[in-house]
Amino acid sequence: MHWNILLESSIYFLALINPASKVLLLSSMDPPLSRKLIWEISVKATLAAFGILVLLAAFGHFLLSDLFRVEVYSLRISGGIILFLFGLKAVQQGRFYENDPHQARPAEMSIVPLGAPLIAGPGTITASIAYASEHGIATTLLALLFALLANLVLMLFSKSIGKLLERMHATGPLIRITGLIVSAVAVQMVCAGAGEWLVQINQNQ
C-alpha cells in the first residue's frame, strides 16, 4: 500500500465530505441541540454514511457498468456538476443548506440529511466508486474511514466550534471559502471525467 496515495485520498475525501457544512448545521439549529444529542446524531450519521459508501465502493462499479450500463467517467461528470452547484450556493448565499429547523426533528436528521446526502453525497459517492476502481477497495475504505473519523471529531465538537466562529465573526467567510474549495474539487472531477471519456473515444477509433 502506498501511504502517500492513502494520505492524499483521505484529504480528498475529507474535502468532499466538507466538515464545515456539518459543523455549521449542528451549531446553528434553533432551538440549540444539547451536547448529548449532537454526539448521538453525529455517530449515527457517520455510521450510516460509512455503510452507504462501503457498499457503493465495493459494488458500485458492478451496479453501474453491468446493471445500468453507466461508465465511471459519466458518474464523475454528473457528480461534479451537482457538487459544483452545491459549492456555488455556499459562495453566493453563505450557506450549504436551507436553514429550516422545522424540516426534520433533530432525532430524525442523523440519517437524512446528515448521513445522506450531506456526508455520503454525490461527490463522495462518485469518488469512492472511482477510487475503488483505480486504487483498490482496501485503500479506498481506509481513506474513507480516516476522512469520516476526522469529520466525526469535528461534528462532535461542533457546538464549541460554532461559538468560537461566532465570536471571531468567521462563520460567513469560512462557508464561502469552503464553498470555493468544493467548487474547485467539482471542476476537477468534471475535467477528470471528460479526460477519461476522450481517452475512451480515442481507444475505440
Can you describe this structure?
The chain is an all-alpha fold and 205 residues long. It has one domain (3-204). The protein has helices spanning 3-17, 19-27, 35-68, 72-93, 110-119, 122-135, 137-156, 158-168, 171-204. Helix 2 (19-27) packs parallel to helix 7. The N and C termini lie far apart (35 Å).
Note the topology:
Blueprint: H1 3-17, H2 19-27, H3 35-68, H4 72-93, H5 110-119, H6 122-135, H7 137-156, H8 158-168, H9 171-204
Helix pairs in contact: 1-6, 1-7, 2-7, 2-8, 3-5, 3-6, 3-7, 4-6, 4-9, 6-7
Summarize the structure.
This protein is 82% helix and 0% strand. The longest helix is centred in the first third of the chain and has 34 residues, at 35-68. The protein has nine helices and no strands.
- Oligomerization status of the protein chains: single chain
Tell me the total number of β-strands.
Answer: 0
What is the number of domains? Answer: 1
Which structural class do you get from the secondary structure elements? mainly alpha
Give the biggest beta sheet: none
Count of DSSP-assigned helices: 9
Please give the radius of gyration in angstroms.
Answer: 17 Å
